[in-house]
Amino acid sequence: LSFCFQKVSGGDDEIQQLQKALLDYLDENTEIDASLVFSRKFYVAQWFRDTTMETEKAIKSQKDEDSSEGTHHAKDVETTGQIMHRAESRKKFLRSIIKTAPSQFSTLKMNSDTVDYEDACLIVRYLASMRPFAQSFDIYLTQ
Q1: Burial 32-69 (b: 16+ CB within 10 A, else e)
Q2: pLDDT digits (tens, 9 = 90+) for 94-117
Q3: For residues 94 and 51, is the Cβ–Cβ distance under 8 A?
Q4: pTM, 2 dp
């Protein structure tokens, strides 16, 4: 798994590299387990939905901040633009995955290394920890 982090500068690129690695692992093992085709499609759809929801929440929170301040700053407009740009780049990445047939996906590998089962489990755990429920679990426990 360390090779995934060595080539990544951080942020959204890190997430996309991990998503690519996981999807590549699923694609390579579809011959062993046909249900992995469904899993691959599920992950792509879930990540697309998450991107849409995160963008809507970020824009809504900015609008709420603008209305409470009473003035509209150029910095906020720039931030909204950045949010939209980041969301569009994520969606573009996921659309490219959707358009790519599973058998062709192996040509999109990030490098020559392959992800094994243990690395795939770590990637899934890491990506799951980034989801809103996992991040707010401590709040639910304290309440």
Answers
A1: eeeebeebbeebbeebbebbeeebeebeeeeeeeeeee
A2: 888 877 655 554 444 444 357 888
A3: yes
A4: 0.66
